[in-house]
Amino acid sequence: MSSRDRSLQDKLKVLFKKGPSAPLPARTELVVSGEVERELGADSPLHRRLRALKELGEKAIHVRVQEGGVEKLWSLTRDLLEESNVEARHAALWFLRCLAEGQADYLQIMRTILFHYLRDTHARHPPEDSQLRFKLLHTLTNTGKNINCFEEEIGPFLLEWLPQIQPPTQLVEFLQLIINVVKFNATYLDEEIVHGIVNNACHLCVYSADVPVVQCGLSLLEAVVSYSLLPRPALRTFVAALCRTVNLEHYCQTSWKLMRNVVGADMGHAALQQLVELLRAGSEEGGLLRGAVFYINMALWGPRRVPTLRVSFLAVLPAFLKALEGNQPVVTYEVVLSVQSVVSRVPLELCEPAWDVLLSILRAVLQQDKSYEPPNELIHNQVHAVITSIEQLHDAGQYYGDVDALLDLIDCCGHDRPEASAMRLVSARAAALAPAAAEAVAG
């Protein structure tokens, strides 16, 4: 070690009381002396600059830098951020993060300078610097809670950066930062930025195979919804994403909770309309349609139905019939479950035209049931359970649909019905024929 190196180290030890004894009283602030400036300056050899950065960085976390000192340190080390030497760049980024952490309450104009550095050099920074640059932003914003001095600029920057992140662990950290920006600084995010954030979160929820990433994406969407920020133009993308995530066990409960919050709020009817339109449009993606059927059922007729939704059965049930055209068992089964929900929970609310559509749905399901090879026991058993429930409603005088249409439905699957059902059909047909026979005799 040269005499110059020892001189700086001795000065720092004295300044911060490093070692068993210190001849000078403790200082309450870190002074950027001429000696420190010489060691950090561009004329000093790189190895000494990096050593000085390490010494100063460790102290700057705990000791206040003199007024104006942070700006001076920035000007002394700024060139290291452009170094081709990776170690030098990373040391400089680490040092700036130490300043951002330890001097958080005293940065003032440096908050703007550091943010602008990250933003303005983002497009051309080396990929290996990404994680340290994010950590600097993470510290500078206090995990996204403090965006003072760059309130209007943070949104576009985050939106530019988010799609470029690939490693799942980094994605999770970045999403958590955006969640905090939404929660603590929602007023500074305009609709266009929120729309972009929602689109990116939905994309991650649908296409990421990493569970923590999807969970964070859903948490971000939940934050947007909780603060009433969801833009109407983003509604279709939002609804379609949740229709897909609800099919996976990891995300089912969270997805339903999120969808229920939306359909129970101001955009509830618009969200329901999007679900219906997804079914009408059809898709080869069974999970998408299955999710839409599930949400409609849960929102309108489920155990936690949304009371503010006032929707005619005739606005919804025809879409179920349309969804069956794809002949996808996963969709068919969900439709049958939904019909069972209607029949068991709200049968008295069904008018005759609604019953007509419902019976048409069951007829279409029965046709599909006959075509399955091997047989689909789940669908077969469930559709016949629904028919039995309707028969019981009829016996109790609570079926307000066309009786002949019901009998025709039972007739078309009579060989699969229980004996009691078959006997009921025969009796009903005989009763209907009796008056006609009497008229013929009288004639």
Any descriptors?
443 residues, mainly alpha, two-stranded parallel ribbon, 21 helices, elongated, Tuberin, Tuberin/Ral-act_asu, Tuberin_N, Tuberin N-terminal domain-containing protein
Tell me briefly what this model is:
The chain is an all-alpha fold and 443 residues long. It has a domain at 1-125. Helices cover 66% and strands 1% of the residues.
Textual characterization of the structure:
InterPro entries: ARM-like, ARM-type_fold, Tuberin, Tuberin/Ral-act_asu, Tuberin_N. This protein has 443 residues and is mainly α. It has a domain at 1-125. Helices cover 66% and strands 1% of the residues. It contains 21 helices and 2 strands. The chain has helices at 3-15, 34-40, 46-60, 69-77, 86-102, 109-120, 130-140, 154-161, 168-185, 191-207, 211-226, 235-245, 252-263, 268-281, 286-300, 317-323, 329-345, 352-371, 377-395, 403-412, 419-442, and strands at 29-30, 64-65. It has a two-stranded parallel sheet with strand order 1-2. α1 (3-15) runs parallel beside α3, α3 (46-60) runs parallel beside α5 (86-102) and α17 packs parallel to α19 (377-395). The longest helix has 24 residues, at 419-442. Residues 14-26 have low confidence and may be disordered.
**Element order, helices and strands?**
HEHHEHHHHHHHHHHHHHHHHHH
The description of the largest β-sheet is: 2 strands, parallel
Largest sheet, spatial ordering of strands: 1-2
Q: What portion of residues is helical?
A: 55-70%
